[in-house]
Write a structure and sequence with these properties.
Blueprint: E1 14-15, E2 26-28, E3 33-36, H1 47-53, E4 59-62, H2 66-72, E5 82-85, H3 104-118, H4 120-132, E6 137-140, H5 147-159, H6 163-171, H7 177-187, H8 203-217, H9 220-226, H10 232-243, E7 244-246, E8 255-258, H11 264-280, H12 293-302, E9 304-310, E10 313-321, H13 325-328, E11 335-343, H14 352-366, E12 371-377, H15 381-389, E13 393-401, E14 409-417
Parallel strand pairs: 3-6, 4-5, 4-6, 11-12
Antiparallel strand pairs: 1-3, 2-7, 8-9, 9-10, 10-11, 12-14, 13-14
Helix pairs in contact: 3-8, 4-10, 5-6, 6-8, 6-11, 8-9, 11-12
Amino acid sequence: MDRHLPFRTLHNFRDLGGYRTADGRHRVRPGRLYRSDSLGKLRQGTADWSAFLSLGVGTVIDLRYPWEIESRGRIPDHPSFTYRNLSIERRPYDQAALTADVDPGPYLSERFMEVAEDGKKEIRTALRLIADATAPVAFHCASGKDRTGELAALVLTLLGVDEPTVVEDFTHTEPARPALLAEWRARNGGRSPGWPAFASAPASVMRLFLAAMRSRHGSVDGYVTGTLGLDAAELRESLRAAYLEPVPVSWPEPAYRTATPADAPALVRLRDSAALWQQARGIAQWRPGEKDEAHFTARMAEGEVWLAYTAGHLAAACEVWWDDPAAWGPRPSDAGYVHRLMTAPHTAPPGVGRALLAHAESRIAAAGRPYSRLDCLSSNPRLRAYYEAAGYRVVGEQPAKTDGTGSPYAVTLLEKSLRD
C-alpha cells in the first residue's frame, strides 16, 4: 500500500497502518490511524473533502496553537467526526529564521523534549482519545512533521513497533518536503526559508529524542507513568486492542503488469520509501529523491518496468534493461539486466521480491536471452547473499560504476543462466 494518501492540498497525509510490532506477530491495522499536515487546508465541496470523509474518521486532533488556527483556519465542521484542539507546544520558535549552523538533530530533539514536558496535559488527553476511539483517528499540526511526529512516535512505541521503524516513520516527511517548501514560499512572497534544514525530517532528530526519553524517563512507558500520570500498561493494552491485528499468514498470488507513465509517481514513492527504510537501519545504499518520474518513464521507453500487485496494492517493482554498459561494458545481446528490485516496506507479502525477480527472468528468457544479470553495491553483502540464494553467481567486480548522478562506486556483478 502507498503510505502517502493522495490529496491536492494535503502533502503529508499518511496511514500508519502496516507497521509491524517488534515480535513480528502483529501489525498496525490499516485505515485506523492517520497523521497529516494541516487539515485546515481542506474545503467543503472539493474532491479532497470527499476523499477525507470517505476514510470514516471519527476524531480529529489538531495539535497547533490557537493563533495558528485563527490565522490559517481549521478543518470544517462535520457530523461524522469530533474535533479537538490540543496545543502541545508552549515555546514558539521560527524554524525558517534559524541559521545554517543549527544542526536539526540536536536542536529539534531538544524542542521535542520541551513539548513532552510542557504539553503533558494535552499529550495525555490525545493518547486517551486515540486509545478510546472506536472509529479512525487523524491527528495533525502545520506540516505534519514535528508535533505530529512526536505524538506518532509515542503511539507507535506504545503499540510495540521497534525503534528503527519509529525513526523511519518520522523521516517519511522527506518526500513531502518539496511541496511543503513551495507552500511556505507561496505564503511568504516567494522568498525561501533561511534555515537549510527547514521542513526536513532527518533520522537523527527522532533517534536523539528517543534516546533523551530513555535517559530522562527510562522508557516511553516511564514517561507515560511518571510524567503523564497514566497507567502505561493499561494504555498500551487499550491501544493494541484498538489498532493491532495479526499479520496475515497467507497472501494472494501477485499479479504482474508493465508500468505506464501514469505509474511514475507511485514508483518514485516506492523507491523513496525503500530508501528511507534503508537509512533508518544504517544501510548506505539509496537516498530519497535520487530518481524522479523522468527516470522511470525513460526506463519504460528503453526497456520494461514491471509492477507486482497483491490485494490491489503495489507491492514491488523492478526494471529490465536490454543492455548495461556502465556496469558490464560492451556485451552481445545475450542477457537482460535487472535493476531497482524494490518492495513496499512493511506491507509487501513475504517473498514478493523473489517472485517478481523470477517473473523478470521469465521475460528475459522469452526475449531469447539466456542470461539474467544484475549488480549490487560491493559494500552490501546482505544484498549479494539475497541474489546468490536466488541462483545468481558472482562473475566479477566493477570498481568504478557511474550512473551520471554522483561519484563512481564499486559494484559486484552477478549472473544467472536461464537455460536450465
